[in-house]
Write a structure and sequence with these properties.
The protein has helices spanning 22-32, 69-72, 88-99, 120-126, 151-157, 182-205, 215-221, 224-233, 267-276, 281-284, 291-296, 298-309, 314-322, 334-339, 341-345, 394-400, 405-413; strands at residues 13-17, 36-41, 56-58, 64-68, 78-82, 103-106, 131-136, 210-214, 250-254, 259-263, 328-330, 349-353, 366-370. By secondary structure, the chain is α/β, with parallel strands linked by helices. The chain has two domains: 13-222 and 346-413, Rossmann fold (3-Layer(aba) Sandwich); 250-332, formyl-coa transferase, domain 3 (2-Layer Sandwich), CATH 3.30.1540. The chain is elongated, with a radius of gyration of 25 Å.
Length: 417
């Protein structure tokens, strides 16, 4: 008989007071790794993203329900309770939960939880081992600390949008936001890393600590090579559409039936591409002898390449270059991406059955989400629960605190839960 090893974080309890995306993304990562995450939501309303639709989840007959799919993207594997932290009884319950937790994640405005006695200092006094992670738009300090911050605002303020889109003089030129709230997601990932580092530190010190995560900090950090270029040269990078500022050819090209992405990262790849394309002389051209020269003469190079890329279909180019180690691929929509055989072979879609707990989810039979990309050999991510209904685990979690069914019923009557 074989036994399933415990998940990597099955020994951790996480109290999730966060909403929308950055905080919930962090806590879903912890939950996927086995942590017991208790998500606290407002009675009657819940996380804002429960209502951010369309699109909405559908019932077995294909009709829309009232639960937005947005919520399901970042709340898998959690237990959900409802609790009004504005009421003293709700604050007392949060303190009880915090006393038994390893980690707390919140994304209230700076100082927002202090009025309820639920700030780091107050809960550190209750549980000195508690790791308390605050996620805000601008951090706990600085002139913007009290401002609300949203992903789109940070994409604009950080300069990310100035790098995204076509140049002003081109058709459709102008700054663009990314197609997903990437700053929120990356903040969640950074927050998860910081929490794991704080846990490791606690092994040595026995104490928790406050983690100050800011969307603006992350937005600036992930500017990566573009920030490095500006900081060390003073030159402000400009939008280049799908072209790369430091590599060529590294962009989209028209094909016989659409477009493909060609990503040449070194001289060897360029030489092999030219040979396969039937133009080995391009690799010998003095203008294209090195990557730096190809970037310098990008316009001439791209014009030449377009004379041949339109001669084959995208699939033919991918097939031609696949065994030559020249990165080339299609530009898929989501239907094509999820139908891709590699995506399917990696099992990147998971489908979880839903327990019909209340009217909001009673008609929903299952929920599909994207699998965790964390592939740990010995302690892989777990699938324990579908994204929960509002308040699905309230009675269960409160009973673990020692509350009787009668006490829970009284809290419901008072609107605390």
């Amino acid at each position: 008989m074989t036994t399933t090893p415990p998940a990597a974080l099955s020994h951790l309890k996480v109290l999730d007071l966060s909403r929308v995306l950055a905080g919930p993304w962090c806590t879903q990562m912890l939950a996927d790794l086995g942590a017991d995450v208790v998500k606290v939501e407002r009675p009657g309303a819940g996380d804002d993203t429960r209502h951010w639709g369309p699109p909405f989840l559908q019932d077995a007959q294909g009709a829309d329900t009232d639960l937005a799919t947005y919520y399901t993207a970042c709340n898998r594997n959690k237990r959900a309770i409802t609790l009004d932290i504005a009421q003293p009884d709700g604050q007392a319950l949060i303190k009880q939960l915090a006393a038994q937790s390893d980690v707390l994640v919140e994304n209230f405005k700076v100082g927002g939880l202090k009025a309820y006695g639920l700030d780091f200092e107050s809960l550190h006094a209750v549980n000195p081992k508690l790791i308390y992670c605050s996620v805000t738009g601008f951090g706990q300090s600085g002139p913007y600390a009290e401002r609300a911050g949203y992903d789109l605002m940070i994409q604009a303020m950080s300069g990310m949008m100035s790098l995204t889109g076509h140049a002003d003089g081109e058709p459709g030129g102008g700054p663009l936001r990314m197609g997903v709230a990437l700053i929120d997601i990356l903040t969640g990932i950074y927050a998860c890393s910081a929490i794991l580092a704080a846990i490791e530190s606690r092994h040595r010190t026995g104490l928790g600590q406050h983690i100050d995560m800011a969307l603006l900090d992350v937005g600036m950090a992930v500017l990566a090579n573009q920030a490095a270029g500006f900081l060390n040269t003073g030159r402000v990078p400009q939008r280049q559409g799908n072209a790369h500022p430091s590599l060529a050819p590294y962009q989209t090209f028209d094909t016989l039936d659409g477009q493909m992405l060609l990503a040449v990262g070194n001289d060897g790849q360029f030489s092999r591409f030219c040979e396969a394309a039937g133009h080995p002389e391009w690799a010998a051209d003095a203008r294209f002898a090195s990557n730096a020269l190809r970037v310098q003469h990008r316009s001439a190079l791209v014009a030449l390449l377009h004379t041949v890329t339109r001669s084959r279909s995208t699939a033919q180019w991918v097939s031609l270059l696949e065994d030559k180690a020249v990165p080339c691929g299609p530009i898929n929509d989501l239907a094509q991406a999820f139908a891709d055989p590699q995506v399917q072979a990696r099992g990147l879609v998971v489908n979880q059955p839903v327990a019909p707990v209340n009217s909001a989810q009673a008609a929903i039979e299952s929920i599909s989400t994207v699998a965790s990309p964390l592939r740990l050999q010995s302690t892989p991510p777990v699938l324990q629960r579908a994204p929960p209904a509002l308040g699905e685990h309230t009675a269960e979690v409160l009973s673990e605190l020692g509350l009787s069914p009668q006490a829970v019923a009284e809290l419901r009557r008072k609107g605390v839960v």
